[in-house]
Specification:
This protein is an alpha+beta fold and 585 residues long. It has a four-stranded antiparallel β-sheet with strand order 4-5-9-8, with no helix packed on it. It has a three-stranded mixed β-sheet with strand order 3-6-7. The radius of gyration is 29 Å and the shape is globular. The N and C termini lie far apart (71 Å).
Length: 585
């Protein structure tokens, strides 16, 4: 990928002898080993012929819009509706989901089938990178809301009839959708949602409609804009009763026609489209006041909770936000590298200065690492989808996609900032002729760390699964130990090991208690559970005595009894008295 020029490695994009028309996005090339034995790119980054055709098709469409046209979308705050139609003609707009085969050529059908076999998530991740690189993260987000979140919701939750109708319209670029999940008090925690649905029945008890009440906030593509009336349908998520315990609530999602909500109840977030970046997509706040929605607009089956599917959907879409960050990073670095050859200081190009190039090279290394991370996660998502969502862990993809989202979004922030610094004053200008669009990319990159779960939420998810992995490993080790060995572990083990063991004991107690009292459990299951229950009780008994056991082992009295229960204090006092009598203290 790199060639030496003036003693410094630069991307092939800058090779002076590159053939005319060479595709700029060379980091994803599936180049085979040369006759000289040069190694190919890592297999995770190698593309199949079908994926190369897919990206070439997207490149052919997006190349019709230069950086000045893209800048106009941002300045005028208008979504790229023409782009929707152009992509719809390719027949590859919503890859991997059902569509009307009669509208597509045999060649397109075969390509779509191949892409689906090779991995739907991988294709969408590649598309997210390409859109973000060529057109900017704002346009990629508009397409991501319309053809990512909304399309995936239909594909995973809707009935076959619903998927066939709405996804066909989406694939043709005829209808636009919005994803209405976020609320004032339910951003990173959807279980805190307060929007409600109430079934309306007829005389025979059949549900004919639903009444929606609540408020949604920052809903992308919801508000109207110059030349765009806003989303035709808004996917509204709601619960039956927000005051129920979280696990007892029923989540539903409705495809609500815009006209049922009313234009007066959809207002631009923050006033007159006053956003720092992502201006190609218009966010809106929605008020739902006794909105009556016919039962046919409910996605899925009545009464069937979709919370689990929603969480699985969000696990997947984090991957695409991270991919947008990687596309933004690649575009920023490409422009910065080119500028280092054009800009001269003290009579030499600035690429001669290590202070200029070293930060860019560090970002280049992080970019390749991010792509490897993203393609690995995409492969896991595809594998999980093929196996019906089952994997080696309880959630096979949430951990990895959270890493991609965190890594890609924060890398985009760092890369755009460094690229603007490389351009100096020119990078601060909004005119694409001066800044090469970096000012806009710099503004857009910020929100990548906020929406679809903030960076700290991703860190929480990653840490939770990291601890869970180690907990499961520790559980397997603990189950192979006898009680005496476990007592020693409690006394001498590290605080983390003790915490894992104590958590394990409490979890085991709850689990085996359910098995023992389950009438459908087999005798063998009850015998195993009884054994686990006995061991757990013995171990938990010792874990409660951890404080005084450790002190007795160390043969030294405590300095502070804060947090001790009365029994432990009394027991330690007896030990102290015994030590005094024996002259140990």
């Amino acid at each position: 990928m790199l060639r030496s020029i003036h003693g410094m490695s630069v991307p092939r994009l800058l090779w002076p002898d590159a053939a005319p028309g060479t595709q700029k996005s060379v980091r994803f090339s599936a180049k085979q080993p040369s006759a000289s034995g040069q190694a190919p790119y890592h297999s995770l980054l190698a593309l199949t012929p079908e994926q190369q055709t897919f990206l070439s098709t997207l490149q052919r469409v997006t190349s019709r819009y230069d950086k000045f046209a893209v800048q106009q979308w941002d300045q005028n705050k208008t979504p790229p509706l023409r782009l929707l139609q152009d992509l719809g003609w390719t027949g590859l707009f919503v890859t991997g989901v059902p569509f009307n085969a009669q509208l597509q050529s045999a060649e397109t059908l075969a390509l779509r089938d191949k892409l689906g076999e090779q991995g739907h998530a991988r294709s969408l991740a590649l598309a997210a990178m390409a859109f973000s690189k060529n057109l900017g993260a704002g346009t990629a987000t508009f397409l991501g809301v319309n053809n990512g979140l909304a399309a995936e919701t239909l594909a995973k939750i809707g009935t076959p009839e619903q998927r066939d109708y709405w996804l066909n319209k989406l694939n043709q670029g005829v209808l636009t959708y919005a994803f209405g999940l976020t609320e004032e008090t339910a951003g990173s925690d959807p279980r805190s949602m307060r929007t409600t649905f109430t079934p309306i029945t007829d005389e025979t008890g059949n549900i004919t409609a639903y009444k929606l009440n609540g408020n949604k906030k920052f809903i992308g593509n919801a508000a109207s804009a110059p030349g765009h009336k806003g989303a035709d349908y808004i996917q509204v998520f709601a619960v039956d009763d927000p005051d129920k315990p979280p696990k007892n609530r029923t989540f539903h999602v409705f495809m609500v026609p815009r006209k049922l909500i009313g234009e007066s109840n959809i207002t631009p977030s923050g006033g007159e489209y006053n956003k720092l970046g992502m201006r190609e997509i218009n966010n809106g706040d929605i008020q739902l006041k006794d909105v009556i929605v016919p039962a046919k607009y409910l996605l899925g089956e009545p009464g069937k909770d979709i919370y689990g599917k929603l969480m699985g959907l969000l696990d997947e879409t984090r991957l695409f936000v991270g991919a947008m960050g990687l596309g933004t990073t690649e575009a920023s670095l490409d422009e910065a590298f080119k500028y280092t050859f054009q800009r001269q200081q003290s009579g030499v190009p600035i690429h001669k200065f290590q202070g200029v190039m070293f930060p860019l090279m560090k970002l280049e290394a992080r970019l390749i690492a991010g792509k490897l991370l993203a393609m690995n996660a995409a492969g896991l998502v595809d594998e999980a989808n093929r196996s019906g969502g089952k994997g080696p862990r309880r959630n096979p993809i949430g951990h990895e996609t959270a890493m991609v989202k965190l890594f890609g979004s924060e890398l985009a922030e760092d890369a755009t900032r460094q690229a603007v610094n490389t351009f100096g004053g020119n990078g601060y200008m909004e005119n694409p002729a001066q800044s090469a669009g970096l000012a806009k990319r710099f503004r857009n990159a910020k929100v990548l760390t906020i929406y679809e779960g903030t960076s700290n939420i991703q860190r929480n998810l990653i840490s939770a699964w990291a601890i869970m992995d180690r907990f499961l490993q520790a559980k397997q080790e603990l189950r192979r130990m006898n009680p005496k060995a476990l007592v020693k572990l409690f006394v001498l083990g590290s605080p983390f090991t003790k915490q894992v063991a104590e958590d394990l004991l409490r979890r085991e107690q709850r689990r085996v208690d359910k098995v023992i009292h389950n009438k459908e459990a087999t005798p063998r299951q009850k015998i195993d559970a009884a054994y686990d229950y006995a061991v757990s009780n013995v171990l938990f008994h010792y874990s409660e005595k951890l404080n005084w056991l450790k002190l007795a082992w160390a043969k030294q009295p405590p300095d502070d009894y804060t947090g001790w229960d009365d029994k432990s204090i009394e027991r330690q006092q007896r030990i102290n008295a015994s030590w005094h009598a024996q002259g140990r203290m």
